[in-house]
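Lab manual, section 2.4: Encoding a predicted structure.

Procedure: take the sequence of the chain (277 residues), apply the prediction step described in section 2.3, and record the output as structure tokens. A sample record is shown.
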Amino acid sequence: MAENVQYAGRLGLESRNAATLPAAVSAVVDTLEDFGHPADAIEARAENTVRLQCDHYLVTVRLRRVPLRRSSKLTSGMLQPVSLLEVALSPLHEDHCDQEIAELLLAEMLRRTLPLVDATSVEWLQSNVALTCEQFLGVFEPHRAAPAPAEREAAASRPVRPPRARPRGRACFKPVEQTAPALEAHCERAFQAAFSRAAGAGASAAAAQARARMRRTLPAGSQDGGWGGQLQASVLSASILPPRRRLRFVSHLLLVAALFLFLDSAGMVQAARPLLP
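Recorded output:
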């Protein structure tokens, strides 16, 4: 165990009471456990000293009086502490101890102990100047750095643009008269692109094969006229048209079929049959 290496920090206290040491020991135990070094043994040597041992460190928490011959480390405006709470961390294996990790662990112990005790100052390691509690905690939560004078002047000279008002309600939609031409142009481009893809090298051969299949599958009775044969022939012939013309043909065919059904339901088709050849 390397007793010669030690990292220590002290908190200056306004008062000395029995609850200070247990609160500090609780904060140290929680810190060791959260950082992966749970305490294996806790030993109270005296009423004012507690030692904790874990896998890599030996931590000593001691409540002591302020020495009479102690050189003052306090700056102007800081109160003289009544007692000191010392937290000392000693590595068990000096060769395998990282100094920065040990110092960070000690700083976290002091930070967690501060809200639990009545502290007025913080003495960090071997520094000759004591810090206020606000100065010590400010290291963990640093304020944003103030901008440089040049940056402030550039920001002040930059024109302030008002935020753009976002449209709401009906203002989000344009009238139909404005959107219809754009929609028609988009559909026209889509039809032309589909027609160009369909008109390839084998488009004519595919059309000839489709017509041949239509002639083979078309029944003989449909050639002599009649509504069913003509309608079937129209549907089959529409299958070989380009996509653009096919869409228009199908729309017209649906309109004629709807008109025919309306006339048939009204009895006009039955009345007109005797007049047909």
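Check your result against the sample. Confidence is low (pLDDT under 50) at residues 220-225.
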